[in-house]
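Summary for the steering committee. The consortium agreed at its last meeting that each partner would contribute one worked example illustrating the joint modelling workflow. Our contribution is presented below. We chose a case with several input lines so that the handling of multiple components could be demonstrated. No manual editing was applied between input and output; the record is shown as generated.
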Amino acid sequence: GAVVSQHPSRVICKSGTSVKIECRSLDFQATTMFWYRQFPKKSLMLMATSNEGSKATYEQGVEKDKFLINHASLTLSTLTVTSAHPEDSSFYICSAKRPADRYNSPLHFGNGTRLTVT
Amino acid sequence: GQSLEQPSEVTAVEGAIVQINCTYQTSGFYGLSWYQQHDGGAPTFLSYNGLDGLEETGRFSSFLSRSDSYGYLLLQELQMKDSASYFCAVFWGTGFQKLVFGTGTRLLVSP
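What follows is the complete predicted structure of the assembly.
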């Protein structure tokens, strides 16, 4: 069964509003979670690394004030797209690592959130 | 930095064998992983190569040559359900925690 739950699966919002996406690890404590963004027919681009109890680490070119990440507990990370614009429309996917995972262990992904900004 | 290059699209017929290549450039290396993603879905793990050679898992096999910075995914006895995008990936960054994906290959299997 799914070990990472992401909600909502789809969201439509108006330009200028903010949207929050939740990512939960269901049966393990995830000290680290990752947020990816994917445009149609493109690869997954890592946006940021979410660390429980500390600030997220953003990849180069990702706006920190635009994409707010909070990892307040060992099982929950949230991504808030602030003041959304149509160009923010994309597929956002979270993933989590179990503490004992090694390099040959799979990364566990949520089912993604399709964001459409009108 | 790092880059992982894949062919953008591959087409094949049911029952055939197809090979998806991945060439990478990365500072530090802890193995090559492969993921499958159906449209609108989550990536799912297929295989991992930490050392040179071939790893076989059912119909899927993966190969790695670290000296050539090259790997491939081999899919045998293709089925329609294998139509999906396939990504190679490497761990990167401080502590090699971050999984970075290749450009991706879209596989289209026809009857």
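The interface with chain A takes residues 30-31, 33, 40-45, 48, 50, 85, 87, 91, 93, 96-104, 106 of chain B (CB under 8 Å). Residues 2 and 26 of chain B are 4 Å apart (CA to CA).
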